[in-house]
Amino acid sequence: MNLLSSNTFSVKKTPFMVMVALLVSDMVTIAASLYLGYAFYHLIDIGKGPQPLELYLKLTVGAEIVMLVIFQLVGLYEPEISILNISEVRKIFKATLVGLLIFFFLTFYLKNISFSRLIITFSAIFLFVLVSFERLFFYKLHQKLHMRGFGVNRILIYGAGEVGQLLYRRLMQSPALGYLPMGFIDDNTEKVGKFISNNQSAANYSLPVLGTFDSFENLVKQKNINELFVTITSLHAEKFAQVIHKCRELEVNFRFVPNLFDLKVQRISVSGVDGIPLLSIKAPRINPVYSFVKRIFDVVVSIAMLILLSPVILLISLLIKKDSPGSVIFKQKRIGLKKKEFKMYKFRTMWMDENPYDWTPTSLDDKRITPFGKFLRRTSLDELPQFINVLKGEMSVVGPRPEMPFIVEKYSELQCDRFEVKPGITGIWQISADRGKQIHDNIEYDLYYIDNCGFLLDLVIVIRTIYFAIRGIGAF
């Protein structure tokens, strides 16, 4: 997230003991993955027969070194911000794939030693799964250490507006960066004393507005503040100079959001010419090869899902009819690629006399939802008819959620960037903790997807969607 400019561009390093624990854990995970691949190969009893365990124990030593180097090269030991830690999962997948290809390559040249490619493949699958869970554990560990003040920079956020709240949310979602917000300061005295809440199903925290900038010096001493993040993009030059002077006087580092196009901050890239910093706005560009292959994937998956799930679709149709009077399929106008209007299909989950173009329910307690509709929304089974939209080319399996026309009419220039790709059945917003809120209030998810869309990201989203569906976590 290229959000902040600064007088220092350093990122707080991962605490030393946590890094050591992570390295040791990675070594154990790599060894366990190879053993599990070996054990699974013999459990299902396929291939050319039993393989000598000693051979794979020796391979483990080489695998430890190779995979740790790959982990370092792909950036798995660097703290960063990415929505839902999607970037880290992509790196794990990339590291696993590179490692698999390297060991496949070696099997062609080690003529005197015959390694089973099936065992190596199984080991790679176990490695991806185990490292993903391992990093989730360390993410939770970072959160606990973060909230208790271990290895953190204690910061104030100057500006309790939309940008400040976005930054606050991102810092709390990325504890590995080592920044612990202690409170807001804001020149609007009406906000002083109030709390800025982030109420999500996966995370719930709030931060007080401690005062105006006049109280900055006292707060630095009271809260032991290391850094100030300035998120008021319209700050006057004189005020900005005052902030810089005060930070230097108190030996407090500062970072600031550049004054560019309101929330265009998510699309800013930073470069430089001979020491002169230059900011530019990244225009969304979609790889045509990726779009072509994705379309083939969409068609194949849609046909397969509609055929394989036809008994489920029939059963749901009968249960909807039994649950409440009215049609089985709910049709609604939505806006898709290049702002083209289309009719989106869903299983009906609300009573027939409800306004189809009212705001989307944000809770299963909404009285507009039928009893069976609650089950469909909780399991996301109401989305199944959208595979027809995908087959027709109006939607994709993965992409931003399609929005209703009356909401799109009020879109800003930034929000209209959502129409650079086809809307999807699932996407980052749908698997986020904010899935119960309105789509247009969480534009950063779609911007992140558009800027980073690719085969690996789509695969991660699909895997997480399946996990959510199994757990019965829908978007309401």
What does this structure look like?
The protein is α/β, with parallel strands linked by helices and 476 residues long. The chain has 3 domains: 16-146, no CATH class; 152-259, NAD(P)-binding Rossmann-like Domain (Rossmann fold), CATH 3.40.50; 288-471, no CATH class. The protein has 14 helices and 13 strands. The strands form 4 sheets. It has a 7-stranded mixed β-sheet, with helices on both faces. A two-stranded antiparallel sheet has the order 8-9. α5 links the parallel β2 (153-158) and β3. The longest helix has 31 residues, at 117-147.
Largest sheet geometry: 7 strands, mixed
Strand arrangement, major sheet:
1-7-6-2-3-5-4
Q: Please work out how many helical segments DSSP would assign.
A: 14
Count of discrete structural domains: 3
Multimer state = single chain
User: Could you say which structural class the secondary elements and strand pairing correspond to?
Assistant: alpha/beta
Element string (H = helix, E = strand): EHHHHEHEEEHEHEEEHHEEHHEHEHH
Give the overall form: globular
Beta-strand fraction estimate: 5-15%
| Overall residue-averaged pLDDT value | 83
Annotation keywords:
alpha/beta; 476 residues; two-stranded antiparallel ribbon; 14 helices; Rossmann fold; 13 strands; 3 domains; disordered N terminus; single chain
